[in-house]
Amino acid sequence: MVSSAVESRRRFSLGVVRPTLLAPLGIALALPLLVRFNAYFLGVAAEFVIFAIVALSLDLLMGRSGQISLGQSGFFAVGAYTTAILNARSHLDLAVALPAAAALAALSSLIVGFPAERLRGHYLGIVTLGFGVAVAQIALKWSALTNGDEGVRLETVRLFGVDVGAPLHMYYVALAVLVATIAFSFNLARTRLGRAFAAVRDSEIAASAMGVPVARTKMLAFAISAALAGVAGGLLAALDGFIAPEDFGITQTLLFFAMVIVGGLDSIAGAIGGALIVEIVSQIAAATNGLSLLILGSTIVVVALYFPSGLKGIFARLAPDAER
Amino acid sequence: MLACRGVSVRFGGLVSVDDFDLDLPKRGIFMLVGPNGAGKTTFINALTRLCPVAAGSIKMDGVEISNVSPDQVVEYGIARSFQKAEVFGGLSALDNVLVGLHAQTRTGLDGALGLPTARREEFAARERALRALEEVGLAHVARSRASRLPYGYQKLLDVARALVSEPKLVLLDEPFAGVSEGEVHTLRDCVRRAGRERAVLMIEHHLELVMDLAVRVTVLDFGRKIAEGPPAAIRRDPAVIRSYLGTRSGTS
């Protein structure tokens, strides 16, 4: 059976670039040309790319490691404020501010990660929801640091010394981070750590019998997820040039949640597709003033009723042989 | 190699395993038999630290392990399968077996970054895992999601996942229960091979399998050891016939 081993080596090899991935990447790279550098569309596109990163971070946590998070906007906010404050006060380059955003968000995840060791399901949902709300409240009340409801205005945004504040530039910066996040998630799912996340999700007793430390593995999933969401938050601050507590409210957290549910759990393509659908629906909904949440809510209900496994299930039906 | 002395497990007031001694050498197939509720699975759970040991000592190669955490047990060379196949449903069969190598591999975030050291370890692990799947005759479903496999296959997968780490002691909790006629033969050969290289402690109800595979049988009843010895002697033991074999000994 040597041939099967060799075949599996080829089939399972890491970091492969598949032709099917090149088409969306080509469109993404050419998008600014397609929208004729329209600043509004570029801003929307960059926002979508940033939300797709958050959707991937949340899918890693909920889809891969089976831990619910209704507080992803909290990690997103920690990253955004870290980046904004480091920029506004210390004029720090994104090359420094984004890693700091990731680190601080990961650190903040320990607050939820500790109880997550013992809590699951609804209870973990409530704890994470509380965390998200608390972060927004802290942003509002700790005005010495955050300027309260006046928000933080960023100065010139630089990456490696180059001014990247324009939507066009931020679009490409965010896109590069998204591509890196996709590769990261893809490889993670195919190596030891990603398997340990799924093992803890599917059977804690079997996972621990295999030597997977359940509590530590759950906390690590939270930390990685938070770090990715934190970077995305930093990118949003850089893109918008201004952040305020209302950017990180409960609606935002539910939008992230919706992206993952619409996309289907434990699916990279699903998370990105879910982010795209939610972004399109919210843009349409925003145009129909006041109805935005109603339209979005209905979309979620329809998905939950008729496509319970989300886009992932639809992809699977279209290409039954392709894994994930 | 394994030395258990006076092991007791209690749930509230109920004594599930009572003052139980067990010694296992490095090689061979050892059977744990007894009626339902005799404490067989509970003893295996105590060995793998899934339930607390109220009293007694469990030593593996002279090291006390009755107080280590469940995820450390495998590092002492003890692996197990579960009575009701506890597979990781969302993972492929191959990935399930790869989790069995968790303690023997090191890759962490470097795997997500696709670094060369991680790749090398990953490929070596995959080849080991594939061989373990071949051992139980599941290589042809390596890429299938475990939750979509028939129950008998899930049981075989559970055994492959326990054996892949090449443990010193493997605990198999009714591995043949639910396995279809056709696969019993493959699994029997697999267990026999395992018994030549390592200690296999197995819970089994099927008398024919016990007689065929075991070098020694330990009989539990109400949490206590009531007999121990070679299968042929156990079969004639009056205490065993009274409490367990009873009418069945005549028919099998």
Q: Please, what is the oligomeric state?
A: heterodimer
CATH topology call of chain A: ABC transporter involved in vitamin B12 uptake, BtuC
List low-pLDDT spans of chain A: 1-14
Instruction: Outline the biggest β-sheet of chain B.
Output: 6 strands, mixed
Give a count of the beta strands of chain B, DSSP E runs of length 2 or more.
10
- How would you spell out the order of helices and strands of chain A? HHHHHHHEEEHHHHEHHHH
Distance between the termini of chain B: 33 Å
The tally of helices of chain A reads: 15
Tell me the radius of gyration of chain B.
Answer: 19 Å
Question: Strands, helices and their partners?
Answer:
The complex is a heterodimer of chains A (324) and B (252).
Chain A: H1 2-11, H2 19-34, H3 39-64, H4 72-90, H5 94-116, H6 122-141, H7 143-146, E1 152-153, E2 158-159, E3 162-163, H8 167-189, H9 192-202, H10 204-209, H11 214-240, E4 242-243, H12 250-263, H13 268-287, H14 292-306, H15 310-318
Helix pairs in contact in A: 3-8, 3-11, 3-12, 3-13, 4-5, 4-6, 4-11, 5-6, 5-11, 8-9, 8-11, 9-11, 12-13, 13-14, 13-15
Chain B: E1 2-11, E2 14-24, E3 28-33, H1 40-47, E4 55-60, E5 63-64, E6 78-80, H2 93-99, H3 109-112, H4 116-135, H5 151-163, E7 169-173, H6 181-197, E8 199-203, H7 207-213, E9 216-221, E10 224-229, H8 231-236, H9 238-245, H10 248-251
Parallel strand pairs in B: 3-8, 3-9, 6-7, 7-8
Antiparallel strand pairs in B: 1-2, 1-4, 4-5, 9-10
Helix pairs in contact in B: 2-4, 2-5, 4-5
Plain-language structure description:
The complex is a heterodimer of chains A (324) and B (252). Chain A has 324 residues and is mostly helical. Chain A has one domain: ABC transporter involved in vitamin B12 uptake, BtuC, CATH 1.10.3470. In chain A, helix 3 crosses helix 13. Chain B is built from ten helices and ten strands. In chain B, the strands form two sheets. Chain B has a six-stranded mixed β-sheet with strand order 6-7-8-3-9-10, with helices on both faces. In chain B, strands 2-1-4-5 form a four-stranded antiparallel β-sheet, covered by helices on one side. In chain B, a hairpin with a 2-residue loop joins strand 9 and strand 10. Classes of the chains: A mainly alpha (324), B alpha/beta (252). The interface between A and B is large, with 39 and 51 residues.
